[in-house]
Amino acid sequence: MTVIEALGKQAQQASRDLLALGTVEKNRLLLGVAQTLVQETEKILAENAKDLSKAKEHGISPVMEDRLRLTGRRIQAMAEGLRQVADLQDPIGRVVQGFTNLDGLKIVQKRVPIGIIAMIFESRPNVSVDAFSLAFKTNNAIILRGGRDALNSNKILVNLIRQTLKAEGLNPDMVQLVEDTSHDVAEELMQATDYVDLLIPRGGSRLIQTVKAKAKVPIIETGVGNVHIYVDATADLEMATRIVINAKTQRPSVCNAAESLVVHQAVAAEFLPKLAEAVKKVHAVEFRADQGALALMPEAVPATAGDFATEFLDYVMSVKIVASLQEAIDWVNNYTTHHSESIITQDINSADAFQEQVDAAAVYVNASTRFTDGFVFGLGAEIGISTQKLHARGPMGLEALTSTKFYINGQGQIRE
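Now predict its structure.
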């Protein structure tokens, strides 16, 4: 029996055990895990330090190191996320619709668990806790496969969750970690159709494309963010400067950070030089610019065609000057990864056109794209940000991890 087969069989039993859990029991467990994480902060940080040390030996970049690093504050944030999920309304058993049909059958459609969820993700160990909390609250068993760089961090976090489950008399296999981080085992998980009901990849473009190409189980595509900010002809340029700097520099390693700047030619000569100077006061950014923008940003470098399609996850940003709103919309739609896009404008018609015509899960007017987040959107912890249209789109909270089932009650009816 392979590793994935063993985990899959254990998850099957755990998913059946989960069906018996009610809201009170689930919430008590989530609060217990939150308390455990805080109590074991030093132990978690010690394991995370091992990962950071190994990652530095492999030449990890400072930006990616930030994704991997845990701190006391970040552990507190994970615990708070668990508490928030406990506070959220439980979607399981919620009636979507109910009616009596012409045959006298009482038909009720309710929300139910998906079953067994698998998740493949990269070097953000907090994902282990976020994913567990949402899966558990929706009565789903979950199999986690994190990246090599975060193995020790993921192991301690999952082990602490499993210990808490066991202490509460629950099946610890409600959450399991694939500790073999080889590509072969990951590929086996992608193809485990006998066990996995849904696979959610969360990470960079290479991971997402690999899963799309090799998975045989249903997947939800998440996370890749070639995110644009378009500065329109009527934009408040002071506002635009603040928003671009925030979206690019506040945390460049995450998927809702801006990667591409599109500027209307009417304001480019005034805006781009000021932006280039203002951003230096926060953090140096390498701008990769088209020919028009190069003339206005002396320290910029020429952009290649590939730069406009790249999620940099670093202090790098492409720059494109356009002649019209429609050209901006067309440009964004050509290069978007359907994550988050923003327009800075004082023209309500331009704002409406951008929001209606740009094909992305989240489309902003006069705001930073950094807000695309399950916490900010009131969903509690998120399991990912879906960039596709079925069956979920945007930040995925509890409801996105449910399916529905029809319950039909009769009194001896037969179909003539």
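The domain at 3-222+383-409 is CATH 3.40.605.10 (Aldehyde Dehydrogenase; Chain A, domain 1).
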